[in-house]
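User: Please fill in residues for this 238-position structure.
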């Protein structure tokens, strides 16, 4: 995997991004939870891709992202002339393009459940997202516990408990690592940052997610980042 960080001269980065194969445009690994999801899925299943990292909260961030997608957000997957600008759509595209890798669970009931919980994560949990934003480097135990965030923690705990007991055999949510685990990996990061107390089985699940090679690599690279995102830092809960 090759990583490119955008600078004011975009010519080389843009040319590389449109080469054959897959290119994933992401934000800072320390902060960008939506970028983490498809990146982890790609790495977990050994799908080759190029990485372009657009630094967040810079004067040229919006212009740099606009070079790849009109939506103004990361992540964006470039697949030749195809542009996919939504994290869940990216994961579905990968599952379609690489069916033999089984990014979704193979069992019909498990696959339906996995898609449901990813869709719920995609469209819900605004309290957790707003009040306990992802910041892998930080340790802020007890902060951000608004009623909305606490309700989201309870709902996520219910989801994890049901998936692990019904399908996961107390390994990952559906046994083998899947898109569902990649989708909830940023939640695991938040629970670590804010010191969320969980039942022992759920704590063990979080440890397994963190130890997965794809997640562990993302964490290591987030910790190694030297760039900051001032707006993201300013929004951290007091």
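Assistant: Residues filled in for all 238 positions:
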């Amino acid at each position: 995997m090759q990583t490119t960080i955008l600078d004011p001269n975009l010519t080389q980065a843009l040319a590389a991004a449109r080469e054959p194969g897959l290119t994933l445009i992401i934000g800072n690994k320390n902060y960008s939870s939506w970028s983490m999801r498809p990146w982890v899925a790609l790495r977990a299943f050994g799908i080759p891709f190029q990485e372009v990292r657009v630094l967040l909260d810079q004067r040229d961030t919006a212009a740099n992202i606009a070079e790849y997608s009109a939506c103004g957000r990361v992540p964006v997957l470039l697949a030749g002339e195809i542009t996919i600008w939504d994290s869940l759509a990216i994961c579905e595209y990968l599952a379609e393009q690489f069916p033999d890798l089984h990014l979704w669970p193979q069992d019909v009931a498990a696959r339906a459940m996995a898609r449901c919980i990813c869709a719920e994560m995609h469209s819900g949990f605004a309290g957790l997202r707003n009040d306990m934003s992802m910041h892998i480097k930080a340790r802020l135990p007890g902060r951000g516990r608004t009623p909305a965030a606490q309700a989201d923690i309870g709902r996520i705990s219910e989801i994890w408990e049901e998936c692990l007991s019904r399908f996961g055999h107390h390994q990952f949510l559906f046994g083998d690592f899947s898109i569902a685990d990649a989708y909830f990996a940023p939640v695991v990061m938040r629970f670590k940052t804010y010191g969320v107390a969980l039942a022992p089985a759920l704590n063990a699940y979080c440890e397994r997610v963190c130890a997965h090679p794809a997640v562990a690599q993302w964490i290591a690279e987030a910790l190694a980042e030297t760039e900051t995102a001032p707006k993201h830092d300013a929004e951290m809960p007091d």
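For context: The CA atoms of residues 96 and 191 lie 31 Å apart.
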